[in-house]
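Shipment paperwork, digital attachment
Item: protein structure file
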Amino acid sequence: MIPALIPFLLQNLIWIPTQLFLRTFGHFKVSGLENLKDLKGSVIFVSNHTSELDPILLPASLPLFSRFYPIFYVSREKTFYNIRQILKRIFYGGFFFEIWGAYQTHVGIHNYEESLKTHIKILEKGHSLFIFPEGKKSVDGNLQEGKGGATFLSHRTNTPIVSIAIIGVYKTNLMDFLLFRNNFKLIFGKPIYPNELFVNKIDNYHQYKTIINDKVMPCIQKLLSESSRE
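Attachment content:
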């Protein structure tokens, strides 16, 4: 693993230009930060996923030098990403992802303990982790079914989950920025603690998927729905 100091420095270094960009070419609003005030130790942030901007918006929504930095990520293998574009070929996956704090899960082995072994270590060291439980970007902007990795990690490391809704980034393009048409919003939900998620004994890995779809994904959907009514 890359030393945690490197993503910590990078994420704080990019904080000011990210803030300037988001607030100059759009409107960026953050709510629910009060829900994080009592959290200690590691945290698993889970969010809907509709844009490549999503991984940037979470660190941008926190104060500079936040105690939640560095934020680590669960990424897919390099071949998963569309690398036909030159910039994606350079930055997506591999070393660049790792220095930012993104470590790939090992897909297809049907063993959370093995596929998420790096992320278990990250949480055991008290760091924050950001997961898109849908596993990929939504094709229609709507929240999809979640996979069980986040709930496995919560159970395995006794870590609370914080649901997040990211709004206004679906199908955002360069012209939207140039015309100042963007209205981005990130909402933090209340923490969900392991004793709320795991009332009964876990007998098999399939239960983690059931739990995330019964108890976590509805929290994300609620935040999205409440925001749409404002």
